[in-house]
C-alpha cells in the first residue's frame, strides 16, 4: 500500500508501548483492514520513514524518572500539527515533558489499553470519535444498575443513552428512543427475568436485531433466555452471579461491585470496533449488490470504502457511514479523496436511514441541496433509484 497510516512512538522504551501496539493490531484485525495498513515509526527513524502528507498520530510514553527523550522530534511534530497523546503512569507533571503540558493525556492502566487503541483509530477516522452506547433495561427490575452504568460510562467519555436521563422535555419519546438506538455503537442489555415480558423491551431487542447492532448482554444470576442469545447476530453475553453485586443484593436497587463494573466497560469498548466494522460491511455489501444488479462497476477499496469510475471520466467515492452522518464523516471522506488522488470527484456518504427521525432526514436533504456539491449523503432507501441512473 502506498498510502499508510503512521503511528509514531516517542519517549521512553517501556513495556507498555508494545502492549498498546499489540492492541492496536488486534483492533485493526477486528476492522478487517489489510496487513500493513498502519506503519509504526520509531522516533530514531522519523527522518527516513515519516511522510508528511499522510495521516499520523504520535504516542509519547512518559518516564517515571523524568528522563525525557525525543524532545526535538516531539517539538517538530507539534509544529506540523500532528496529534500527540502523552501516556503517564502515576503523575502527569513529573512523567511528561513540559512541551506536552497542554496536551490531553491518559493514564496507563490495563483497563485503558482498549481505549488508547481506539483513540488512535478515531484519530485516523477509522472509528467514530463519539462512543455511543444505548442502555436497554426494564425499570421495575434494574433501574439502579442502569443508572450506575450510565454514570460510570459517562465518566469514561462515552455518550450514553438512558431513557430517564437522555430525552429532553417535549421530544416525542419513542421516536427519539429509536433514533438514538440507530445512532449508537453498542447496546448494553440488562437481561433480567422479566425483560421480555415488557412490550417495549421486546421492541428494543427486535430493533437491535433489525439494525444489526452489537449487544453486550448482562444476564442476571440463574437466568438464561435462549431467544436473546440466538436472535442477535452480534451478542456478547456475560453471565452474572450474586458475587457481582454489592452485598449480593439482587433487586431493582441492586448495584454492581466496582471491579466488575470496570470489566463491563472494558467489554463495551472492545465490542465497539467489532460491531461498527460488521455494520459497515453489511452496508457495503448491500450497496454493491444493488450496483451489480444495474451493471454499475463499484470497487471495494481495502480501506473499507467504494469507488466508481464513470465513462465521462468523473469519479465517485462512496463512504459507508454508521448512524447519522456528521461533520466528522465529511472529514473522513476528504481523507479518502486524498488517498485516491482524484481531482474530478464527488463523494456520497451512504447510510441506513431506518428509524432515523424525520427532522434529521429533512436536515440532511436540506444540506444536500444547499451546501458543498462534492459531498452529499445517500440514504439506504434511495440506493436502488440512485444506481438505476445511467
From TrEMBL:
Keywords: Receptor
Keyword Ligase: no
Domain TIR: 129-257
InterPro entries (UniProt xref): TIR_dom (IPR000157), Toll_tir_struct_dom_sf (IPR035897)
Protein name: Toll/interleukin-1 receptor domain-containing protein
Keyword field contains Transport: no
SUPFAM superfamilies recorded: Toll/Interleukin receptor TIR domain
Name of a matching Pfam family: TIR_2
Amino acid at each position: 500500500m502506498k498510502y499508510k497510516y503512521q503511528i509514531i512512538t516517542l519517549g521512553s522504551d517501556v513495556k507498555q508501548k508494545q502492549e498498546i501496539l499489540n492492541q492496536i493490531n488486534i483492533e485493526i484485525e477486528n476492522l478487517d483492514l489489510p496487513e500493513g495498513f498502519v506503519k509504526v515509526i520509531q522516533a530514531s527513524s522519523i527522518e527516513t520513514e515519516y511522510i508528511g502528507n499522510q495521516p499520523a498520530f504520535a504516542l509519547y510514553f512518559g518516564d517515571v524518572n523524568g528522563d525525557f527523550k525525543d524532545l526535538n522530534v516531539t517539538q517538530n511534530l507539534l509544529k506540523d500539527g500532528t496529534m500527540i497523546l502523552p501516556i503517564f503512569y502515576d503523575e502527569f507533571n513529573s512523567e511528561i515533558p513540559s512541551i506536552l503540558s497542554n496536551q490531553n493525556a491518559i493514564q496507563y492502566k490495563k483497563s485503558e489499553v482498549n481505549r488508547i487503541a481506539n483513540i488512535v483509530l478515531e484519530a485516523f477516522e477509522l472509528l467514530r470519535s463519539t462512543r455511543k452506547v444505548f442502555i436497554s433495561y426494564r425499570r421495575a427490575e434494574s433501574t439502579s444498575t442502569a443508572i450506575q452504568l450510565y454514570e460510570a460510562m459517562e465518566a469514561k467519555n462515552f455518550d450514553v443513552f438512558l431513557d430517564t436521563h437522555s430525552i429532553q422535555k417535549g421530544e416525542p419519546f419513542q421516536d427519539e428512543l429509536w433514533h438514538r438506538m440507530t445512532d449508537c455503537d453498542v447496546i448494553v442489555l440488562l437481561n433480567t427475568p422479566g425483560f421480555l415480558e415488557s412490550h417495549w423491551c421486546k421492541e428494543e431487542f427486535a430493533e437491535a436485531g433489525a439494525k444489526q447492532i452489537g449487544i453486550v448482554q448482562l444476564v442476571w444470576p440463574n437466568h438464561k433466555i435462549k431467544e436473546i442469545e440466538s436472535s442477535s447476530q452480534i451478542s456478547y453475553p456475560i453471565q452474572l452471579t450474586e458475587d457481582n453485586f454489592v452485598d449480593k443484593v439482587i433487586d431493582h436497587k441492586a448495584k454492581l461491585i466496582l471491579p466488575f463494573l470496570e470489566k463491563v466497560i472494558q467489554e463495551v469498548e472492545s465490542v465497539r470496533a467489532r460491531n461498527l466494522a460488521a455494520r459497515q460491511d453489511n452496508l457495503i455489501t448491500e450497496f454493491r449488490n444493488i450496483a451489480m444488479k444495474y451493471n454499475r462497476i463499484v470497487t471495494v477499496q481495502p480501506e473499507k470504502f467504494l469507488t466508481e469510475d464513470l465513462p465521462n471520466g468523473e469519479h465517485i467515492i462512496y463512504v459507508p457511514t454508521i448512524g447519522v452522518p456528521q461533520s466528522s464523516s465529511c472529514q473522513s471522506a476528504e481523507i479518502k479523496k486524498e488517498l485516491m488522488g482524484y481531482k474530478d470527484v464527488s463523494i456520497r456518504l451512504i447510510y441506513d436511514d431506518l428509524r432515523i427521525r424525520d427532522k434529521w432526514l429533512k436536515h440532511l436533504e436540506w444540506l444536500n441541496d444547499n451546501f458543498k456539491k462534492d459531498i452529499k449523503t445517500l440514504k439506504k432507501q434511495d440506493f436502488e433509484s440512485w444506481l438505476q441512473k445511467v
